[in-house]
Structures are given as C-alpha cells and as structure tokens.
Amino acid sequence: MARLDAKTRAQLPDSAFAYVDSRGQRRLPINDASHVRNALARFNQVLFEDDAARDRARLRLLRAAQRHGVVPIGFVSAQLQPQRRLPKGHVTFLLTDIEGSTELLGRLGDGYAAVAATVRKIARRAVRAAGGHEVDARGDEFFAAFAQAPAALGAAVAIQRALRAEGWRDGAVVRMRMGLHSGRPTLTETGYVGLAVHAAARFCYGAHGGQIVLSSSARAGVLDALGEGVRLRSLGRWRFQGLREPEELFQVEADDFDPDFPPLRAAELVVAA
User: Fold this and answer.
1) Which architecture characterizes domain 87-270 according to CATH?
2) Domain ranges of the chain
3) Tens digits of per-residue pLDDT, 71-128?
4) For residues 187 and 166, what is the distance between their CA atoms, to the nearest angstrom?
C-alpha cells in the first residue's frame, strides 16, 4: 500500500475517507483498493463519536469496497453487512452489561482490559454454542440475537455460570446484568432498529449484576423449553421511560444463582389497584 504523505492526504476530498468526525478530523482513507483493505482491517480499532457516526462510516466503507472490487471477508464482513447473517422476523435479543465497570476499572487499572476481554470471550463462546449471532460488542456491553428464545435463555444461563466459575485476578468480582426480549425488529444495512431493541436495552439496564430479566414475550417463548433446574419468577409490572406500556418482567432462577436482588433500576413498579 502506497503511504499517504501529508500533502497528498490534504489534497484528498472528504469523500475519500470513511470517517470524518465533528472536528473535521479525517480517518480511514478509502481512496484506492489498498487503502480500502487497510480501512477494513482497522475499522474496529477506531473510536467513533457515537453509533450514528459508526454506522455512516460502515456504509461508506462498504460502498468503497464495492466500488474498488474489494470483498470484505471474515469478521469484518460480518460487522459491515450484518443483514447477511442476522435472524429476521421474530427475534429474541440478549443484552448484557458489566455491573460496576467504572469501579472495577479504578481497582484493576491496566488489568481491567484483560478482565473485559475474558468476559467478552465467555459471552461469545456461549452465544455461538447456542446458535446465536453477535450483533455488537463495545465497551462493557454485549448484544446478541437469536432465532429461538430458548437458545437465548440457554446462552444467558451459560454466561452467568461461566462468570461465576472464572478465577478472576486480584479477587475481583465480575457480575453481569442481562435482559432478554422478543419482538419483530427491522433489519437494515446497519443492523436492527425498532422498539424491540430499545425495550431490550431498558430491561438489561434495569437488572442487577448476576440477574437475568426476561420480558413477557421472551417468557412465552421459553416456557416449554426451560433447562433442567431453571425456573422463572414474576417480578411484577414495571414502567420504563420511553416505553408506552408497563411490562411484566420475570427473573431467571436456578439453585446456583443468587435468589434475591434489589428492585429493578431506572423503572417504576406498577401497583395493582
């Protein structure tokens, strides 16, 4: 790949870059085939300002690859063209988040990166084993989609058990909150959109570390296929900001899970009249 010197780079138009941030800084040059290949390899290393910026860069890079006859392959292809692999129609989402990640980072310092990498490896292994599909993974969050709700529940249970069994360094306690929700989102070139995505995120954020929370729609899909020793308990109906109607939520229980958690976060319990 011919290296871009400062003068040549400055002469390129903004359209020759996959990403131009709000300050005008231009990244991921895509002016020719060799630079497109380099941008494909480096795409997941770029820190984007927000999801919308990342999606715009993703599409611009994909169009450049098509224009220059470059075929995205492997992991990067899956990231750039999620619609080719993700389930459509009735989908069950699994969202996870590390509880207390800021405090954990402060305690472990540079060691936190290894912990986060292990958490992500555990999640990916469980999702693949259950036949699910990784949608996104950034920071402390992990987002997966499943064609079948029992598979999503199986993956969530497997992740929680693997986290409990892991020997964490420096006596760290790593706990993940999880939310499962089923719905019919729209699958676009940049991934899933729709109320189902937002609802799943709300339910995950409302949970506590070590807790798996299911929506009523997800529960309906797993009732006849609960794993051995796995039970569901109603948490009542909760109102979340941004969702029109209250949602009855359920907690996954098993003999090796913590049984009790505080009330859900960022939500209001609806008391029956």
Assistant:
1) 2-Layer Sandwich (3.30)
2) 6-80, 87-270
3) 765 545 555 555 557 899 999 999 999 999 989 988 888 888 889 889 999 999 999 9
4) 35
Global confidence as pTM: 0.71
Residue 132 or 84, more confident = 132
Q: How far apart are CA 143 and CA 263, in angstroms?
A: 23
- Whole-number Å distance between alpha carbons of 61 and 76: 11
Residue 3 has pLDDT above 70, yes or no: yes
End-to-end CA distance of the chain: 70
Quickly count: other Cβ atoms within 10 Å of residue 263's Cβ: 12
